Structure formats: C-alpha cells, structure tokens
Amino acid sequence: MVMQVAMERALNAETRTKGLGSKCRNEREKAAWADCLKLYESTILQLNHTLTGKCSDFDAQTWLSTALTNLDTCRAGFVELGVSEFVWPLMNNNVSKLISNSLSVNNGSTEKQTYRDGFPTWVKPGDRKLLQSSCVTPNLVVAQDGSRNHRTIKAALDAAAKRSGSGRFVIHVKSGIYRENIEIGNKMKNIMLVGDGLRNTIITGSRSVGGGSTTFNSATVAVIGEGFIAQGITFRNTAGPENHQAVALRSGSDLSVFYRCGFEGYQDTLYVHSQRQFYKECHIYGTVDFIFGNAAVVLQNCMIYARRPMSKQKIVVTAQGRTDPNQNTGISIHNSRVMASADLKPVLSSFKTYLGRPWKQYSRTVYIQTYLDTLVDPAGWLEWDGNFALNTLYYGEYKNSGPGSSTTGRVKWRGYRVITSATEASRFNVANFIAGRSWLPATKVPFTSGL
C-alpha cells in the first residue's frame, strides 16, 4: 500500500517536473532540471519493478534503495549549481519519505551468495565465458579509421538500440582515444563494451561542475541499462582538479561488471551511483572522493591510486552516500591496493590521504584484506563536516596490510570499528553484499566469493 502511494506520488511529480522545463531561467536551472527528469523516470521504473512482486527481498531492497538515491541526486543537482530555490520545492511531495517507509517494511532477508570461477554467481555462464575468453566474437566493431562497422562508440550504441531482443550484445572498441560523451539508457540492457586493453582503448571527456554541469551529468560515460559489462577500457575525465567534481564513469546499471578497466580523473572520478556493481582488477585514479555514490559495490583486486591534488587539498579515496539505514548499499574494497600515483610520490609529505569520509548520514565503507601504503594518514578517516554522521556511519577495516594499515591511531568515532570477526567481515564480500549467486556467473568474470 505504501509503495503504491509512492508510485502515484512519483508519477505526479514526474508530470509536474516535465511542465517546469519552460520555466528554467538559465543553463544551470536547465541542467539540474534535465537530470531530475531522468532520475524520476528511473525511480518510477524501480518502483514498478518492485510492485510486480516477481522479485526477492534483496532485489526489492536494491531497487527501493536506488529509487531513494535518485531523488537525493535530483535534489543535490539544484544545490550544487546554486539554484535550489527554483524547482525542488515544487517537486518535493514526500515521495522520499514514502520510499523510506517501504524500505523499512521490506527490510527482510538477503540470500547467502556464492562465487564461481572468481565471479559472483549472478554473472550468467555465457557472460563468464565472454569475460574469460581471449577471443570474443563481437556483434559490432568500432574503429576510428573507418575500417570496421562504425567510427564512434555512439554510432555503434545507436545501432545496438535498434536490435531485436535484449540478449547480450558485444561491441568491440578497437585501440584509440575516443573523445565522446556516452549515455547508455534504461532501455539498452546487456550491452558489453570490449576494448583492446585499458592502456589502448580510452574514452575521454571533460565535463565538470566547474564548467556548468551537475556532478551527475559530468560523466564521460554514464550507464543505466541493466547488465552492462566493460572490459579492457579506460574511462577518463580531463577537466582537472581546478574544475572540482568531474566524473569519468557513472554507473546506475544493476548487475554491472567492470573487468580490467581504468578510471582516470581527479575529484569524483568513479561514481558508483546505485544498484549492484562489481569491479575486478581495475585501476582507479583520483584526488578527492574519487570512489563515491550509493551503490552496493564490491571492488576486488583493484589498484587504487591517489593523485596529486590542488594545494592544501586533502586526498580522500571514498565518499559513500547512504541516506537511509535500511538501504542495502555501501562500498566494499577487497584484496586491493591503495597507493600513491607517480605524480604524488615526490610530494607525498605535503598532502594527507584518508580512506573515506561520510558524504551522507549512514555512509558505509569497508576495507578488507587490502594493502594500504605509507600515504594513508594514521587517523585513517576524515570528517565531512564537524560531527556529522560520526555516530551513524559504518566504517570498518579487516585484516589489512602494509605500512598504512595500523589501526592504533585511527579515529575514535562511534561508527568506526576494527573488524575482528570473519563473520562480520563476510557481510561485505561478493557473495553476501551484492547477491552474487543470482547473476555474476553469467559474465564469466573471475571473482572470490569469500574472504
């Protein structure tokens, strides 16, 4: 009943939002408004999925968590562009509160998940073969010299959108630097982009908040369509640290996988916006909050590189955005390495580096069996704004190693803990945290299910 009312309110809000487009007085208002249209469309889709009843408790909790995240992102866009007095008051009709109530009611069981061949089991067998094969037969090939089907990735995606059915569709993107901004929308399910390696196939853009975009819309590549897979590609944003938030990749794709990919930027490089996501053997570069968002995400066997920031800036690896205690979201970094990039090493003593800070009230991040190099400050974690969220966050460390892993000098917040129990730590492995049993085996990406 609560969810049905939430759906009705969301539909009403979407209709009202569409009508506000003509009232936008400048480009910033228009940018925030355009984001909200997409986010309301996604919210309605998530609520509709949940209302069908053909889903597990874990699915429902994921989709409701995403719906709530969407509305928070909509509101944030108006705030960061300085136009919060414009549209948001007209759109806020308690949809968030109703979804939060639904999350509380639905907060039931989550299935114990397993791994197979190094990937969560929700990756289907066919997809697992694709990821483990050195020779994938693509549906389309992109080459900048015009020798194959398309010269641009966008052209290939436009062609893919016209296909019949929604089975796995593979696009091989040959070596090159592709200067494109790409969006893979709700209707484009099961797209797979395969590059020639993260050093050879690069997609690059330069949108930023400093340049007038919202954080949400600054992404060089944005993915929403379910079941997206990327392999052997680097996603880059070249806006630079002086332009503040500038996203290389944003994923709101449920059951999405990134295998041997690169993510290069400065502030807000990798936006793990929402849904269930898995990153394996990836390289991630940034300065401030460079892995952030409110997905349920596991990063496994990844190399995380802190870059040189602007003068007097602090380096922060994560900024997790959980706004409700019943959201099944968080960032889990497992068996990875946190290191200084080449440009930071010579000036390492000039900058402090932290594992994370609480972007939202119930921020949740764990580092499990990860190597933390000398750059990590003894305190480990950083406040967002005074005492905000220090009692309600969940930050944990379990059996990490390296010179920056000592927990002796760590923060004394109520929400921080040194995890000593394997049982508690296992809540955040691929098997349990992102419901691995149901989807990862299909992708053929290798994963470790336990600790």
From TrEMBL:
Record-annotated Pectinesterase inhibitor domain positions: 1-105
MF GO annotations: enzyme inhibitor activity; pectinesterase activity
Gene Ontology terms: biological process: cell wall modification; pectin catabolic process
Catalysed reactions, semicolon-separated: [(1->4)-alpha-D-galacturonosyl methyl ester](n) + n H2O = [(1->4)-alpha-D-galacturonosyl](n) + n methanol + n H(+)
SMART domains in UniProt: PMEI (SM00856)
Function according to Swiss-Prot or TrEMBL: Acts in the modification of cell walls via demethylesterification of cell wall pectin.
Name listed for the protein in its UniProt record: Pectinesterase
Species annotation: Actinidia chinensis var. chinensis (Chinese soft-hair kiwi)
